[in-house]
Structure formats: C-alpha cells, structure tokens
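User: Quick one: structure for sequence A, then sequence B.

Assistant: Sequence A:
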Amino acid sequence: MQQGPLPHSSTGLVAREITLLDVERLQAFFVENPDYFHIVHGCAPQPDEARDEIDDRLPEGWSFTRKWKIGYFEGTGALVAMVSIVSDLLAPGVWHVGLFMVASSLRGRGIARQLHRELEDWAAEQGARWLRLSVVFANVRAEGFWRACGYVEARTRDGIELGQLRHRVRIMIKPLSLDSLEDYLTLMPRDRVEPPVSV
C-alpha cells in the first residue's frame, strides 16, 4: 500500500489508513453505529461489511488515481470515524467521498464538521478542485450536514440499488477553488442533468 500524507486532525484523533488488518475493528465500528446502514441499505451491517468496504471496487472502466480508507482513532486505539475517498474520479481534480462516518457518540460536538474541514484542506493540498459525493434522499440528516458544509446539488439519479433498497440520490459537489459548477460539468458530463426526451 502506498503511504503518503494523511489529513491532520486538530480533534485529538489520530488518522491512519485502514487495511485488512483493521477489518475486525472496522466491523465493530459499523455494528456500533448502524444508523447509516439501516437508512441506506435497509438492514443492519452485514457480517462482511468491513471487508467489503476495504476491498471495494469501482465500476469497470472508471478511472481514478488513488483510493484511501482513512480511520480516525482515539488514544485508546478505538476507531471513532472513517472516510473513504477516491482521487481524480473520472476526471483530474474530482475527489469522490464514498463514505464519511463518525461515531454516533460524537454527534453534536462539532467533530464531524472539523474532520470534514481538515479533509477538504488535505484534498486541496493534494490537487483536488472539487469534492463530490452521493447522498440518498432518505438520509435527511446527512443531506443537511453536507449542505451545511457547502455542498450543492449537481443532479439527481433514480433507481440506485444499495443493499436491500432502491434509492433516488443527489450528486453533490463542493468546489475547493474558484471553479464554477459549469467548469465541473465540463469535466464531468455524466453529472449534467439530461434534457427531457421529447416524444
């Protein structure tokens, strides 16, 4: 695994890459914080959830530079947050946040927002021009968080299957420079809203 700089955390948490050596710790984290899985997958985390997250593959033909699975650990060694992020997804400078999860015990303390700010700074230092993510319509709390962090909707997609559920999702982006939404859509035409089909 390539080692490189990771986001600095002023929260007192230590960031390091998650590997298959951490699969039991990550699985325990998912089981202890099941809300996301119930909302998005329609069920509790599956027994192989952590392994699948660490081993996940992008769709065939999708280009990218690097995938990170970053864990945030307390001094005791407890995993309390994790992020999955892919650099240069389909276009240079577009970084996709696949999963951003903070322990429910840390909610309401500003830690998630601080970790995200530091993730933004780190990604920008590494060459990111936009952060991109998908949020399911049913995950109202997450959508509110992302909007508060400065993300805007680029488009929606219907019929996305996740776990046992089929969702409508919002593709949201956040510029990390002075680039506009139109600049982004020029690089990422797949996120452009399709014109209605005339009959």
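Sequence B:
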Amino acid sequence: MLQYFIRRLLLAIPTFLGCTIVVFFIVQYAPGGAYEQQLNALKKGNGAEGAGSALGTEGMAIPPSQLEALQRYHQVNEPIWKRYLIWLGTWPRPVDDYQAAIGEPRNVGEGHRVIVKKDATGQLAVFEYENQSVRLDEWHIDPSKTANSVWVYRLERSGLLTFDFGRSFQYRKPVTELIMDRIHVSMQFGLIGFILSYIICFYLGVQKALRHGSTFDVISSSAVFVGYSIPGWALGALLLVLLGGGSFLQIFPTGGFQSNDYDQLSLIEKIGDRLWYFVLPTIAYTISGFATLTMLMKNSLLDTLGQDFIRTAYAKGLRESRVIWMHGMRNSIIPLMATIGSVISVLLASNYLIEVAFNIDGIGKLSFEAIVYRDSNVFFAFTVINVILTLVGSIISDFMLALVDPRIRFR
C-alpha cells in the first residue's frame, strides 16, 4: 500500500503542473487582464491629448518610462513559457527595479544609494555610492535604456512554489496576506457545514433505509429533493428575508460573521457569537448537499442488507441492531468515505455564492470578487489552492477506503 500512495503522490505532481499551465494560459490570453486594466488606468490618469500615444490608441500619451515600468512588471515582452516559469518560481524574476540616470546616485531602498557608471573595461556597472553597504553582486543592469538612464534590478526566485502569489490589483496587498486574513473564517464555516452534512445525512440515510417505503421515507425524500433543487445562495437570500430582518422576523443577524464588539467579548461569548452568525449560512450550505449524501447512504445500506453475509448473521441468531451496526454499517459507509476527498476543498472555499449572499468575508467571497474585477493573482491563488486540496482529497479518499474496507488492497 505504501508504494501505491507514493506513486499517487508522484502522479499528483504532473497533474498539478498541468492544471496550473491550463489556468495560466487561459488567464494570460483572456481579454481585460491585469496589464490591460492598469494600462487603461494609466491612460485615464494622464488624461492628456497627444499627437499619438505610446501604443497609438485613443490619443492618450503615456510617458515611456511609465509604460516600460508597467511592461517590465507584467513581463509582457517575455515569451509565454518564461512568464509561466517566473510565475511558478523556477525562473528568477526582476525585483526592486529602479530607473537610474547614468552618472547620478540613485536610492535603492532602505537608505542605500548606488550609481551607474562605466567600469575599467568601459562597460556600464553598478557601484556603491558614499561607501554604502550594498551587495553589488545582487544588482544587474537591463541593457534597454530610456534616454540617458538604465534599469537596475535584483533577481529573486519567488512565485507559486514559494507561496508568493504576487499582489492583488484590487486590494493593493500581497495575495498571501489576503488569504491568511480570511482563511480562518472559511475554515470555520466550511468545517461546521462539512461535519453537520455528514452527521445528518448519515443518520437520515440509515433511518430511510430501515423504513424503506414508509410514509417517513416518502416525506423525507420529497423534503430532501426540494432542498436539493434550491441553490444554496437562493435559499440563503430567502432565509435572510424571512429570519434576518428583511421583511418579516429579526431573529438572526443580517450578515457578516461576527458582532462589532466581538473583540470585547469573553471566549465563551465569542464562540456563541460566531455560532449565532453561522446559523443561517450553515443551513443554506448544508441543505443543498443533503440529497446526494442521504440517498447514497440509504441505497448503500439497502444493498448491503440484501447481501448473503447479512442473512447468515441473522441465521446465527444475532440481534438486529448488531447485524445492522456491526456488520452492515461498515460496508455501507464505503461510498460515503469515497466522497470525503471531493468535498475537502469546501473546507476552505465553502460556497462562494453563499459567502457573498451573507457578506461573509472569507476566501469564497474573495475569489468571487477576483473573478468580477479580473484580479488575476487572487484568481490564480484560489485555483491553485483548490487544485491542491482536490489532489490531497483524492489520496485521502483512497486511504479511507482501504481503512474501512479490508477487501481493498492497493498495489
């Protein structure tokens, strides 16, 4: 079994890279990306009519230095394969780049100053200025020039493999910081919904199987499929109108995930406050996934109870409760174990439309805003997280299957 899981882990690497390549190429060639948005903003910011713009569009003149800085930041002049490797973190990218006039000192951050001039061989090089302690071996010169200036920069390997997703163009913050600020909210919401879904669906599926064909089975099936047919975000909006102070009752909060005075509450009060805010969104999230898990559990148990080994257990005189819970249940939960991996990504992403409907500032809402505002770096990060969780969840599902079913042996 160990060799099987090692092979699965090794197979996950090319699968992960393949997914990132597809997403990267789609975003790079999709219209209205980050580069085009910033270019348009730069045009509107300059707002001056010129004889011809730097790109020859709309007559807006963009200073060559600003245009070059923008192109350097997005690496638009680099081939697509190199841009992917830079984003992945396997190819060094220019960072801390500055435009420096030849022969004039230039600040390069943290009070350090350098000067670009010719060395003994007549080639341009970067020198310390006023004996400042600068690691000159880190600094490079871009051969391209703007008037009498050049670009000096450092090279650094940073990208996906170092969990550096760049900066958000919408929030003007590092994407990793945005995710870390919201991850605890989505994890709490997703974990509560995940646990409740499996507990309720497990119990309901067992009861429906034991009472197959009864009035309870018919009514519960109708209720489950009605809930399944209503999208979670639509049910959430309805709950807000009915119970969240919309047009009827003011029982639950209207949105968000905590009170304004949350920081002044005690630990017990904080837990109660958070749970109170999660009641409606958890109901909206959980009901939408009832049908699949409930019917899966019911049909699996019905199939197991018709097997020969169950009839043999009854023939030996074992109690019905022992036959069902000790012999039948272990085989019946196998399909449920197989679905755990596919929903693990929900623990972080939850349901982004539900987070939007309830104004829960989690990763799901952040990803929704990234799609709306074409914030490519946030979208990349969200996609990468989902791919990783899906691959990990698939491996966990295989492990859970082997754990509960002794007949399964991976080789």
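The chain has 16 helices and six strands. The first helix runs from residue 2 to 29.

User: Thanks, that's what I needed.
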